[in-house]
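Homework help board

Subject: predicted structure for assignment chain

Our instructor gave us this sequence and asked us to write out the predicted structure in C-alpha cell form, then describe one feature. I got the C-alpha cells but I'm not sure how to describe them. Can anyone check?
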Amino acid sequence: MQRSQLEEKALNQKNQISILGVETSCDETSAAVLIDGRELKSHIISSQIEIHQKYGGVVPEIASREHCLQIGKVIDQALEEAGLGFKDLSAIAVTYGPGLVGSLLVGVAGAKAMAYAAGIPLIAVNHLEGHVYANFLEHNDIEFPLLALLASGGHTNLILFKNHLDYEVLGRTRDDAAGEAFDKVARTLGLGYPGGPYIQKAAVTGNPQAYDFPRAMLEPGSLDFSFSGLKSSVLNTLNTACMKEEKFNMNDLAASFQMAVVDILVRKSLKALDQVSAKTFALAGGVAANSILKESLSLALEERKIRFLYPSPVFCTDNGAMVAMAGYYHFLAENKASWKLNAVPGLTL
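My C-alpha cell output:
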C-alpha cells in the first residue's frame, strides 16, 4: 500500500502528538484525547437525549445552555482519564461547523481560550470530515481513494476522499437528511427521539414490502438525495388511515419506510461507485448504526470486491474522538486556526 505524505510524516515523527478533540455541534458535549493518531486515551460523551426527548427533537437554546454546563467537566474528565494536563497536549481540535450556532460557539470559545492559555495550536475541524475520520479510529490501513456515505440527522453526503484532507463532495441532500426523515417519521408514529433506533426496533417484526413508498432518484446521473417526498408519503399514509378510521400496522409501516431509505442510500452509493474509482467504501454518521443499511451495503460491496468499513456505534454519533482524529491530520499538515476562529453553522465541505 502506497503511503500518503501525511502518513509518511506521521511515521517519521519523533515527538508524541497528543490531540484533545472537542465536539459540541448539536446535543452531545464530548471530548477525547488521541495519541499519535492511533491510541485513544480517553473518550467522554455527555448526551442530552433525555433532556430533548420530551420535545421530540433538539431545542437549540436548551442544547447550548447544557453545553455551557458540561463542557468544563467533560474536558477535565477526558484529560484526567488520559493522565495528561494541558501542558502535555500538542494541540486542541474543535468542531466549528456545521451545526447549531449556539452549541458550536460554546465549543469554539472554550477551545480557543484553553489553547491560548496553554500556548498550543488551535485546530478547526469540519464536522462532516470528522464523521468520516471516525473510521480511522479503528482502521489504520485504509487505502485511498475512499468513497464515503455520510448519513446523519443533519446531512446526507457522498464524499470522495482522494487522500487525507483532500475531498470532493459528489452528492448531498437537497432537502431532508436521512436521519432527519427517521426522526420526523418516528415522532409522527409516537415512537420517540432519536428516531433511528426506534424505527429499526419497530421494523424488526414488520413487513418491508407492506407499503410501496417512493424512492426519489432525481435526474439521471445525479448523486444528490431527496427524502422529503418519502417522508410526506409516510405522513399522508398515516393521515389517510386516521381520517378513514382504518387500521394500520405500525411495524409494517416502519419496516417499509426504513427499507425505502436504505434502498435510496445503497442505490446512490453504487451509482457513485460506477462514476469514480475507489478502493474503500466507508459509512459514517448516526444512520451508520442502522443494521439493515450495513447488511445491504455489505452484500452489494462484497460483489464488487470493495472493502467496506463502518465505525462502532459509539463513534457513529457526534463525538470528540472523531474530531481528534481529523485534527491529528490537520496538525501534521500544519493547518492551524486563527485566534479569530468563529462558529460557522452552515459550513460546507
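Reply (TA_rk): Your C-alpha cells look well-formed. For the description, you could write something like this. The first strand starts at residue 18 and ends at 23. That's the kind of observation they're looking for.
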